[in-house]
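Blinded run. Sample ID left blank on purpose so nobody reads anything into the name before looking at the predicted structure. Input follows.
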Amino acid sequence: MKKHMLLLVALVIATSASAQFYVSASGGYAIPSAGVLMGTKVTATKTENTYGSYGEGLNGQLRFGYSINETFGVELGLGYLHGSDQIKSDVNIPNYRITDAVARGRAFGVLPQLTYKFNSHFYGRIGALLKVGGKTEAVVDDKNYMYDAENGITISQALNLPSGSYTHTTYTEDYHGKLPLGIVAAMGYKFDLSEKWSLFTELEYMGVSVKRKDSELAEFNTDVVLADGTIAVPGLYTLDNLPDGYVKKTTYVDELSNANTDPSKKLSERVPYSSFGLNIGITYTFSKK
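Blinded prediction complete.
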């Protein structure tokens, strides 16, 4: 028994002797790991699909690490994603409709990970990715020249305004998701500047998708505008006076009756946040115990 205790003490001392705490900060840019259908581009002659991921964009991480020994370690990372615009609808048909609708991700995440050092320079890490906050934001700018497109009635004819008049609608809608669980993995190269400071660069994969929970209109306004840009009717529709087909808040559910007529309920869907990224950062290592 005494021999086993001495062996355990020796193992703890040996591990503690090489254990180190460190903190690192990095920034980078990520691209979609797999293009998923996001929206469409429409002109008078063709319609084109657009692909992407809400995980595309600028990101930053702050990681706190503990080197158990010369090979293995653990990290806890805090990350933020400032996603790039993804095209949802790009319609450009002059004197009919011009729409610019984009969506982008804004997300906060927690990354518990294990690290492995191949040698003094190359390392890898793998762990879980939990998005704990944020939203997907849709921003829409729509110019509609038609009052009744099916019957060819224009805004000018319906409202007895000069030719070329249109409605100009702008709104922002915030989408919120349920707490997702994904994976993160990276390979990196570290270059020591001194005993405590080092630079690193790494290739990182994040695999995660978010299931929508609800969405809410944050802003909404529709003006009637003349061809020369003069506003003929300001605030025709607002958040307090939404047109048919729009609701302030939408809830996403897994099951919906075929007879449902409530526009505030829609079937849920998963939206992609997966990406490949390049990060560059700096690490400060505290003195060994």
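Unblinding after everyone has recorded impressions. The first strand starts at residue 20 and ends at 32.
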